[in-house]
Amino acid sequence: MPQPLNYLKESPSQTAGPYVHIGLAPGAAGFAIFRQELGREIAAPDVPGERIRVEGIVFDGTGSPVTDVLIEVWQADAAGIYPHPEDPRHADCAKGFRGWGRIVPDFETGLWAFETIKPGAVPGRSGRMMAPHISFWLVARGINIGLSTRMYFEDEDNAADPVLNLIEQPPRRETLIARRTGPGRYRFDIRLQGEDETVFLDV
Amino acid sequence: MKPAEFYPRDRLWHPPALTPDYKTSVARSPRWAMLSLQGSLSEITGPVFGHGDIGPLDNDLIRNFATTGDPVGERIIVHGRVLDENGRPVPNTLVEIWQANAGGRYRHKKDTYLAPIDPNFGGCGRTLTDESGYYFFRTIKPGAYPWRNWVNNWRPAHIHVSVFGTAFSQRLITQMYFEGDPLIHQCPIVNTIPDPRAIDQLIAPLDMNAAIPLDCLAYKFDIVLRGRRSTLFENRLEGN
Fold this sequence. Notes:
The complex is a heterodimer of chains A (203) and B (240). Chain A is mostly beta strands. Chain A is built from three helices and twelve strands; from the N terminus they run ααββββββββαββββ. Chain A has one domain: Aromatic compound dioxygenase (Protocatechuate 3,4-Dioxygenase, subunit A), CATH 2.60.130. Chain B has a domain at 61-225: Protocatechuate 3,4-Dioxygenase, subunit A. Chain B is built from three helices and 14 strands. In chain B, strand 9 (158-163) and strand 10 (172-178) form a beta hairpin. Chain A: This is Protocatechuate 3,4-dioxygenase, alpha subunit.
């Protein structure tokens, strides 16, 4: 018998279920309990950068909106710096920039939206710059393990992005690119399944 | 030495996306394969929380919504540690929980189950782990409840648990079940997990050592997040 490896196993995931809002966004569940709900402000008003609004709908395999989804986003500041000690430049990250947000859609229409600043480009692996992007993480009833994806911007140069270029089929890359619908406004629909299914990432 | 990437997720340990016995997964599971990504700065960083984010009663579900008295039900402590796959504690990380009341009813405008709302029970809490990765909550043991999957499906008693870790790629939501509950092994959501050992990992044992005599029982629930390897023999990540 060789030595045992003795690693622990990661706790297995389970669906967040239909009432995820109770724990993570109680206001949306219909009651107030905490002094402050987390994830409502990604970038404080005085954080430098272009103010943007991102909106969209998550669709299931039948084309119906997923009205009970909960989305979290994570992004760098306008200079491409993350507010996290693992980023070697994090001391220079914009003050008041949390970089993280939690988004709940309208329960009738499934439309969600958030306001933030446009992130800057971030250094990727082997010194290759990644085009500006926002990381998404989705949980909902029927989703057994949180789905990760990225949102890129139509009006940025995404041609050399190392992650987009990992996607073998060029048409699928388009599923990660938000459309500009007006000044500072972007539309990013996510399709869980079927035609134009969004690329999901095993990060 | 500065650690680098996270160990890859063992996708055979976690439930797959498509699990037809859990009906909602059928239309909400991607059909294409996921794109495997080696970690970059975007994956190895994540939100940081501090004590300014939470209130002093946030981890006490017996008190944090009570107005006219204590909630009805079995008083319990749920406690444990958040560790990574290397067995190292994950300190100062946010743990959030939510659950139904003792009758299996959620305080959510979309829950229409006939069991009544408890006026003194909200059903959510949050806390930060301490330096040794330890966390604790006080709450009411939730009741089982029926759900529309098969005609007569009932969820075992469970508490939903959300954990952050230090990186966005460690983000995890799971459910904690209670030792000895006969509903666990007939639940289609539990059974989305293919490996029975992985199911066992979500079952919290009764912990008499932590029970408070004449006051409340306790259950112990350790949570394991992805571990990281060191940058051995490898070009370092840019900026790392």
